[in-house]
Amino acid sequence: MTISLSKGQRIDLTKTNPGLTKVIVGLGWDTNKYNGGSDFDLDASAFMLYADGKAKGVDDFVFYNNPKTPNGSVVHTGDNRTGEGDGDDEQIIMDFSLVPANVERVGITVTIHDAQARSQNFGQVSNAFVRIVDESNGREVLRYDLGEDFSIETAVVICELYRQGSDWKFQAIGSGFSGGLAALCKNYGLDAN
């Protein structure tokens, strides 16, 4: 049975799902009827965060152009440039057993590629969700639907997976940013350039 979460909720992942070590973070979205002449290209990213809540360098930032961490603990499966079709539009695979001990959280985000040039924002995106799937058997463990109505935001921190002792937990965040990827990187201590 899938657990549906709302903004701000936290839930245990590994304690309530013994043996859960590798998950698929599936992200999906639709665009509403608005058509500005350009496809919406939404991009999922993962930020490896340390005790201070910041990433330390480019190796801590996983996205379509840097598809995995050096040790393979977090892997981006590829860029979907249109978001067409049902189900997950992009996926990030995370192996809890390989995440370096000094990484305390992994922030999962979605940004709109070239949002400013294309005059696009999350107010034009609907049915956005994240789901956690047990990689070993394909079972959906939880789902968080971003029911929030965003307006001018071009980047969203969807959720964070975080370590508590030897267990991993999930927090539904749904926090929007204006300024796209650059603003998100700055939030997490990186220079987007």
Give the SSE map:
Elements: E1 3-5, E2 10-12, E3 22-31, E4 42-49, E5 61-62, E6 74-76, E7 90-95, E8 105-112, H1 115-118, E9 125-134, E10 140-145, E11 155-164, E12 167-177, H2 180-187
Parallel strand pairs: 1-10
Antiparallel strand pairs: 2-12, 3-7, 3-9, 4-5, 4-8, 6-7, 8-11, 9-10, 11-12
What can you see in these coordinates?
With 193 residues, this protein is mainly β. Helices cover 6% and strands 41% of the residues. The chain contains two helices and twelve strands; from the N terminus they run E-E-E-E-E-E-E-E-H-E-E-E-E-H. It has helices spanning 115-118, 180-187; strands at 3-5, 10-12, 22-31, 42-49, 61-62, 74-76, 90-95, 105-112, 125-134, 140-145, 155-164, 167-177. It has a six-stranded mixed beta sheet with strand order 1-10-9-3-7-6, with no helix packed on it. The chain has a six-stranded antiparallel beta sheet with strand order 2-12-11-8-4-5.
Largest sheet geometry: 6 strands, mixed
Question: What assembly state would you assign to the polypeptide chains in this entry?
Answer: single chain
How much strand content do the residues show?
Answer: 35-45%
The shape, in one word, is globular
What is the number of beta strands?
12
Largest beta sheet: strand ordering: 1-10-9-3-7-6
Rg: 16 Å
Terminal-residue CA separation? 43 Å
Query: Which percent range fits the helix content?
Result: under 10%
* Number of helical regions: 2
Pick out the low-confidence regions: none
Which series of helices and strands comes N to C?
A: EEEEEEEEHEEEEH
